[in-house]
């Protein structure tokens, strides 16, 4: 069959600080509810941006908007400088990788096959010969090679989450959008995943990560955006944003922010009077 | 997706091709007028202009006007059914999807029955496949629209939709039979049992375009079908234009189902059993599964047709009855297994 579509062109290398995604006055409605009510956010290369906030604040919706999954009711989403709707699916796949909140699979593909699916966007491009290397590196980084040949469906929740992350890393897109990558993970692997985010940022990628654990956000994010009822309540470095009054109000729960006794890093904990 | 499990996939391909090479001359030789396999090969050689000798007039006629068209039809129908099953399971992300179980075959049958009952002939020889295609396409679109919710197709919804659609299409078939005259009723009844016994070269030509188009298009989408297993959104994140892919594949499924149904009525379960067995043996990668299911379907249907016309000779078992007898228990087992894996239907 003759292919009428032209091949998607891989993006040029990004420079540190370059804006890879941004929203301007973004409003999104899901049904009757306005989930995002005017959000301005900028995602830069070389930076880990954490999206935090209570349940239903709009974190996942904002992430979906940055992934070009949603149509805005108002405002604009730009990815690599171009409005999201103007990119084709294959072009987007070379520019952003997305980790969904829960990983499902309808057929029993093996772990390695699943990770290799992350290379699909590169088929037919000159970078396709990096496939094996990218898959191996992503699997090693997420510590999944031990069950490479097992079917994905036979894994535990935490193992699945790491395999899904490996698939996203293997895609090697300059913009990484991760929706609660740590939700199913134990302490060690939570740290591992956020260290990986930092590594990717240091290598020049932009990483947006939805987190519930404010301690992780404080420790690993360069910048934190606090969402509250569909708006950005605060946006800046963790040390500035994590303010007791602001967090207590946003979460409707008294929160303490204290310096770590040994390192002085920001610690966030709910205030408990037991 | 590459290189992994090449072993089983290659072995299966070789095994299936070998089975085909054995079955075809056997099926050509066995029957009410037996022709030794050596004579079959010799006659084929002669036709191809590679030596060999012509058989006597009767044998030559039985071989080329009765047996071979029937074999070619069995291969086309089997390949179409197997391939359609594999495609449909991929599109719905559901191992229980099959043209028969979800009502698409019977939907296509409505078109074919209408063509027979109303004596339609606007496209000549191609009228029946064309009507089956249009009706089948409408049915797939209907099932698709009714059984999807929130970007997913749940097993229960799919099967129940299939029951509803099968009931409705069954009623329509009944209605057309009621409206038809006696000659047409006989033709419909015979056709409905799913037999290949009236195979002729014009019949082969009538379904060839549908079947060939479907079989050639299907493998182009295997890599994208693999990605679809991750779900709609993740597939889109990996560059698949999901909506377009689904529309195209639904068209292909309708083509293949129409080809199969317009020849031989509803032959169930081939599209369910063949892809499933291959997936268990060689993994779920569609690059093997789609051509493999076409090949496997061809082998199974040729074998089934051979059994149908020899087991109760000189009478002939209806092919559709035979495949349903073997296929239904398998479907039941599959249902139990899927249920167990999901921990009940909730």
UniProtKB/TrEMBL annotation, chain A:
Molecular function via GO: ATP binding; ATP hydrolysis activity
Protein known as: Hemin import ATP-binding protein HmuV
PANTHER family hit by this protein: HEMIN IMPORT ATP-BINDING PROTEIN HMUV (PTHR42794)
Keyword Transmembrane appears in the UniProt entry: no
Keywords tagged on the record: ATP-binding, Nucleotide-binding, Translocase, Transport
Domain ABC transporter span(s) in chain numbering: 21-254
Top-level taxon in the UniProt lineage: Bacteria
One matching Pfam family: ABC_tran
Species annotation: Streptomyces spinoverrucosus
Gene encoding the protein: hmuV
SUPFAM superfamilies given in the database record: P-loop containing nucleoside triphosphate hydrolases
Coiled coil: none
TrEMBL record, chain B:
The organism's taxonomic lineage, starting at the top: Bacteria, Bacillati, Actinomycetota, Actinomycetes, Kitasatosporales
Keyword Cell membrane: yes
SUPFAM superfamilies documented for this protein: ABC transporter involved in vitamin B12 uptake, BtuC (SSF81345)
Keywords: Cell membrane, Membrane, Transmembrane, Transmembrane helix, Transport
Positions in coiled-coil regions: none
Name this polypeptide is given: ABC transporter permease
Topology within the bilayer: Multi-pass membrane protein
PANTHER family linked: ABC TRANSPORTER PERMEASE PROTEIN MJ0876-RELATED (PTHR30472:SF25), FERRIC ENTEROBACTIN TRANSPORT SYSTEM PERMEASE PROTEIN (PTHR30472)
Location of this chain's protein in the cell: Cell membrane
Organism domain of life: Bacteria
InterPro entries per record: ABC_BtuC-like, ABC_transptr_permease_BtuC
GO molecular function annotation: transmembrane transporter activity
Organism of derivation: Streptomyces spinoverrucosus
GO-annotated cellular components: plasma membrane
Transmembrane stretches, start-end: 71-88, 100-120, 126-146, 158-180, 200-221, 247-274, 317-335
GO biological process annotation, one example: siderophore-iron import into cell
Family: Belongs to the binding-protein-dependent transport system permease family. FecCD subfamily.
Keyword ATP-binding among UniProt keywords: no
